[in-house]
Design a protein that fits this description.
5 helices, mainly alpha, single chain
């Protein structure tokens, strides 16, 4: 079991070093300093207006953020899917309880 935990930490470290996570962090840093973009994101969340979405995707940082966010999301989904296939459960279960 300790080996699995160790490998999990290694995986997290490797993800942290990956271009996906690096670009995600960088683009997020740039986006949170742009009040106009933040306002647009909020507006889009409230309205789902396709025009706002189109405008957001004109911003290179937003586009990069979303691309990397989606890629990381799918990596996590794949890990979760594997976990489910091995355990056939979504949460850990203590056999003694």
């Amino acid at each position: 079991m300790n080996e699995i935990i160790l490998k999990t930490y290694e995986l997290i470290d490797e993800l942290d070093k990956s271009s996906v996570v690096k670009e995600l962090k960088l683009s997020k840093e740039m986006l949170i300093t742009d009040k106009h973009i933040l306002d647009m994101i909020l507006d889009y969340r409230n309205t789902n207006d396709p025009k706002i979405k189109e405008e957001l995707y004109k911003n290179e940082y937003y586009k990069t953020y979303m691309k990397n966010y989606n890629e990381l999301f799918f990596i996590v989904m794949k890990i979760n899917s594997y976990y489910k296939s091995v355990t056939d459960k979504r949460t850990c279960h203590n056999e003694n309880n």
